[in-house]
Amino acid sequence: MLVPIFTLKLNHKINPRMVTIGKFDGVHPCLTAATQAGKVFIHNPHARGQRPAAHRLSHSTQDSDISLLNINQAVTCLTAGKLGPNTTGDTLLVGSQTNLLAYDVHDNADVFYREVSDGANTIVLGKLGDIRSPLAIIGGNCALQGFDYAGADHFWTVTGDNVRSLVLFDFTGDGKNELLVGSEDFDIRVFKEDELVSEMTENETVTSLCHMHGSRFGYALANGTVGVYDRNARYWRIKSKNHAMSIHAFDLNADGVVELITGWSNGKIDARSDRTGEVIFKDNLSSSVAGVVEGDYRLDGQTQLICTSIEGEVRGYLPAGKDLKGNLMDSSAEQDLIRELSHRRQNLLLELRNYEENAKVHLLIGVGVIPANTQLQTALSVRPATEAQKAHVELSISTPNAHEGTRCVFSANTPPELHIHSNNRFFLPPTQFHVFEITRQLPRFSMYDVNFDSSADPPTGSVTFSISERPQRVVMWLNQNFLLPEGVESPDVTFNSLRGGGLLSVSMASNGQITLRTDDIDLAGDLVQSLASFLALEDLSAEADFPVYFEELRTTLTEVDEFHSVHQKLTAAMADHSNYIRNMLVQAEDARLMCDMTTTKKRYRELYDLNRDLVNEYKIRSNNHNALLACLKSVNLAIQRAGRLRVGKPKNQVISACRDAIKSNNVNSLFRIMRAGTASS
Q: What is the 3-state secondary structure (H, E, C) of 385-412?
């Protein structure tokens, strides 16, 4: 349990999910958070009276314990920690949509200031894999980038969508940190440096990740879901009508195992068991929680849990002593517990009554009314689209000796694993049914129907690779991942896509060369990864050609160059206008002081026109920037798609080579790499 030990009211609003704590002088922990108008405040109650130097840092006029760091851009993420080998204390890292600032608060000086074209949506600081120095890793527009203390770029890779959350810890148990990435495409990806080693899919954007202990980590989604994974296995999850603003791991009952602390959008703070998700503590702030951190803020040798709200309220908690445990839940929490127990009692009484009413029915099983060998039989089949309904996969359910069977039709979005509950009547009273439960695996590529029409034009896109496996193994993979009719014993099969149309062709030559023909590069990547996983292939190189997609990418790269050129011109024009405005303002003030009202009015009219032009130019520049970000996202996705056509080292080599080609603006080399996996002709 937790005991509140201090409460502060800061005169600054706090941006959600932008709270950290750092020892910038190596001794005193300082609460640091992003606030409005492109500023970061640093609360240091331990060094009152110390005035900061006059670089970026300024003293707050509202609170003597707060210093303000002027970023002059909207802050998108921040963190603090040990970055350099010879620094006195922690380094503050502040990200925006265009730049990353590493700042030495103690010396009031920039460590480095780097432009990040993909933006910085979230940031984490720590060691990754075999890279020796700690890295500040930012997640942006489908890209991950890591900088060392000197601002050198030591890590870069692409991921599936905009990155929303990051965490570093030893996921695989090999003694080295992996990077977990939560993104807007609902996936949690695990990277061992630039190699993707694992992937988990949720049902909403992954907004927060936190390491708990060992290989266990907590996560939060945009729809109000929080939960815990142990490696790839989900332990538990719960869903709330409120949004989880921050999650943190903290041992509140001194048992050596951390609990998951969640701060919610309605101001509630709760602590849940890492094993079951059961609530073991809760409290409320007066407004939405902005962040949850921990540190020895009172310098008494005890680590406090520190919760902040968006209105600037700060509350610190300590784990309760043994004599107070069990008496800390407030009266409202006790009432909630009583209501929950009462509701559970009613449910148990209702269940007991049902057991009593059905006792006679259950006796019928013993006399053979329901045969002991009765089983639920299921069958999956692909149904093409008709005028009456869309294309779908049909699940038929029946029992051989029941009066009533069940037939269920489900859409293509059904999860890969189906949990089926079937009600069947066996000469029982009208209100009595026997329930059968069964789990049926849905093949990954269920929405592809075998095409027997050989006259259709083949797809223009293809990926080709060689394996040392028998054709029967490929047939086994096809049967496991597609709904094939009986009698298919050859790996040469053509399918129709029931989702978006188009053909998919799979063929295997006698020398082990496999060719996948499809115009969908995403589908090709999924097929390669699925087959490699089935055959346990660690490395797989491939040659690929997707003419339509590559032509679209070439157009996108041309647009990127155009947007960069426009951006530079607009920046130069705005700088010229700013200088002109400065001169015009001086002339207008001179005319006013000389009582020349005619010239003063003329100059201020010109200033008004210039200001209007500046506003219009800013709108154009903003639209240009958004379009540039969209194009860069497409380029990063293209690199990831090219990588997914390979496995293991060839995949990492393709991603790295593509990045180098883009850095050197060598478009022809980029397409050679995507096609052949290497830059050589």
A: CCCCCCCEEEEEEECCCCCCCEEEEECC
Residues 28, 25: Cα–Cα separation, whole Å? 6
CB 19 within 8 A of CB 291: yes
Which of 201, 109, 124, 117 is closest to 164 using CA atoms? 124
In DSSP terms, which residues pair with 35 in a beta bridge? 39
SS3 672: helix
Give residue-wise pLDDT tens across range 523-548: 999 999 999 989 999 899 999 999 99
Q: Name the one residue in this structure whose structure tokens are 């695990």.
A: 190
Rounded to whole angstroms, the Cα distance separating 263 from 265 reads: 7
59/52 Cα distance (integer angstroms): 7
Query: Which H or E run includes 421?
Result: strand 417-424
- Going by pLDDT thresholds of 50, 70 and 90, the confidence category of residue 633 is confident
CA distance 174 to 176: 6
- Average pLDDT on 455-465 reads 88
101 C-beta neighbours (distance < 10 Å), count: 22
Phi, psi of 372 (to 5 degrees): -65, -25
Is 60 exceeded by the pLDDT of residue 383? yes
Return all residues near 318 (Cβ < 8 A) that are at least 6 apart: 2, 3, 5, 302, 304, 305
Angle, CA 659 vertex, CA 656 and CA 662 arms, to 5°: 155
pLDDT of 159 strictly over 60: yes
Least confident of 32-36, 201-205, 330-334, 408-412: 408-412
DSSP assignments along 552-588, one per residue: HHHHHHHHHHHHHHHHHHHHHHHHHHHHHHHHHHHHH
- CA distance linking residue 310 with residue 87, whole number of Å: 31
Closest CA to 24 of 41, 10, 52, 44: 44
* Section 23-30 average pLDDT: 91
Q: Which residues contact 256 (CB under 8 A, 6 or more apart)?
A: none
C-beta contacts of 573-578 below 8 A and 24+ residues apart: 573/617, 574/614, 574/617, 574/618, 574/621, 577/610, 577/613, 577/614, 577/617, 578/614
Instruction: Please report where in the chains the tokens 């707050």 appear, as a residue.
Output: 60
Amino acid at 394: E
Interior CA angle at 541 toward 535 and 545, to 5°? 115
pTM of the model: 0.71
Check pLDDT > 80 for residue 514.
yes
Tokens of 305: 């849990």
Is the pLDDT confidence value at 462 over 50? yes
Q: What is the pLDDT of residue 344?
A: 84
Q: Could you give the 3-state DSSP secondary structure of residue 476?
A: helix
CA–CA dist 646, 525 (Å, integer): 8
Query: Residue 266 pLDDT more than 80?
Result: yes
144 burial (CB, 10 Å; 0-12 / 13-18 / 19+) is buried
Between CA 212 and CA 214 the distance in angstroms is: 7
Per DSSP, the residues of 590-619 read: HHHHTT-HHHHHHHHHHHHHHHHHHHHHHH
